[in-house]
Write a structure and sequence with these properties.
The chain is an alpha/beta fold and 443 residues long. It is built from ten helices and 17 strands. It has one domain. A hairpin with a 2-residue loop joins strand 2 and strand 3. The longest helix has 16 residues.
Length: 443
């Protein structure tokens, strides 16, 4: 018996070394998919971009005193995990129907969402109830807002499909599962990237009030009139002079990403709340230290120089560190002087809507796009790319690891803090996340 247990333990160790997640913890690396191409704007270094002319007004409207709050962590809050979860499914995952409340701006189903897909906040939660699914092999990202099980499928407020190997944006004026019309997963902090010491992308952030306008690469807005209010898609950068040396490791890695890649205003909610994936290995005390940094330590940046095309998320001058890749990184960066070839992540056999050029006065201020023309049908979602399907082996190994953990009564990894977020919110003085379907989708 002991020998069998040792064999299982060795298999489990090899499973982890191969990048297969522990039970209940998905891994983008296990899917074999990149988190969008290396030249995608989410990976753009904004540390040397000019300050936006309206930076002061935007930050004053957001609230300079608002502290950065990790809207993710370990443990549970109101019976659900803290953060926005995602799951990885094989290419063979059956697709099921999805009924949308905002069908005119949603990519039509069916979607490969398993019956037990994790829902933000848990199966009985209120709020935004996001569901995120990465399909291995096709490298498609499926995201739902306000998702609920319905019969053999799901119903949702809105949904979007993204090709993780392409830079194609949604039609201008279309929402996604986020108010900004952007992918959610691209802006979430994940434990595995913090553990390796580097987050190589911008981070999703919410603001209490936003402008009825959006900046490239955002495609949609859900705000109100007021030129001083931040538009969706605004990039905020932690100022270079802010000292982050004394922060715990988990917090310091996240803060460095805010300095290099910045925050992207993606939805309405509590100001300064940043998005991440729940994981039992998060140290909630370390994440709580982010609150020592306030929005007064940030500046808005002008991203005009990054834009290659208003229809593409490809960014000029975007380059990761030598030898680095965006996560699993199967994508190839665009050739010098060329934008990445666009993909069509949504609808069947319909051309994408051409993107109008913006007036020069708006383009010079970061491509501020106010109200847009009526939406048109989505572009062809098409078949997935040609990557080799990982198959069921990673999932079988992950399940085996779960059995080993149960048999050996494995304790949580060192550094884990399984605490109720009630304590974390109470210590920070901030209210729990207050987004709800009405507040996050003002139309």
């Amino acid at each position: 018996m002991r020998r069998a247990v040792r064999v299982l333990a060795v298999v489990a160790a090899l499973t982890l070394a191969a990048g297969v997640p522990a039970a209940g913890a998905p891994s983008l690396a296990a899917s074999g998919c990149p988190l969008f191409p290396a030249d995608n704007v989410w990976h753009a270094d904004v540390s040397r971009l000019p300050v936006h002319p309206r930076s002061g007004a935007y930050l004053a409207a957001i609230g300079r005193g608002a502290g950065i709050h990790a809207d993710f962590g370990s443990g549970t809050w109101d019976g659900g995990p803290i953060g926005i979860p995602y799951t990885v499914v094989p290419a063979s995952q059956p697709k099921v129907p999805v009924r949308f409340g905002y069908a005119g701006e949603s990519d039509p189903g069916p979607y490969p969402i398993p019956p037990g897909a994790p829902v933000e906040g848990g199966p009985d939660a209120g709020g935004d109830r996001h569901v995120l699914v990465v399909q291995a092999g096709t490298c498609r990202l499926y995201e739902l807002f306000d998702a609920h099980r319905e019969g053999a499928g799901w119903r949702a407020g809105s949904g979007a499909v993204f090709d993780l190997r392409a830079n194609r944006l949604r039609p201008d004026g279309w929402t996604s599962a986020d108010a900004a019309g952007l992918p959610i997963l691209a802006g979430l902090v994940r434990y595995e990237e913090v553990a390796r010491g580097r987050v190589d992308h911008a981070i999703r952030v919410t603001v209490d009030r936003s402008q009825a306008a959006h900046l490239w690469p955002a495609r949609h807005h859900a705000g109100q009139a007021g030129a001083s209010l931040p538009p969706m898609g605004l990039r905020l950068r932690l100022r270079a002079g802010v000292d982050i040396a004394g922060f715990p490791t988990q917090a310091r890695v996240i803060l460095q990403a805010m300095r290099t890649y910045g925050l992207v205003v993606a939805d309405n909610g509590s100001s300064g709340f940043i998005g991440g994936v729940p994981d039992e290995r998060w140290d909630n005390d370390a994440l709580h230290q982010l609150g020592r940094i306030t929005l007064a330590d940030f500046e808005a940046v002008d991203t005009t120089a990054l834009r290659v095309s208003n229809a593409s998320a490809a960014a000029r001058g975007t380059a990761l560190a030598p030898g680095a890749r965006p996560d699993a990184g199967a994508a190839r960066p665009a050739l010098p002087g060329k934008a990445a070839a666009p993909a069509n992540p949504a609808g069947a056999g319909r051309p994408a809507r051409p993107e109008p050029e913006l007036p020069a006065d708006l383009a010079s201020l970061g491509d501020l796009a106010a109200t847009t023309a009526p939406a048109t049908p989505a572009a062809d979602r098409g078949p997935g790319g040609g990557a080799t399907t990982p198959g069921l082996v990673p999932w079988l190994l992950a399940g085996l690891l779960g059995l080993v953990a149960a048999a050996l009564a494995v304790r949580p990894l060192a550094g884990s803090r399984r605490r109720s977020p009630a304590g974390r919110h109470a210590r920070s003085g901030a209210a729990p996340p207050d987004r709800d379907p009405a507040g996050s989708r003002r139309r």
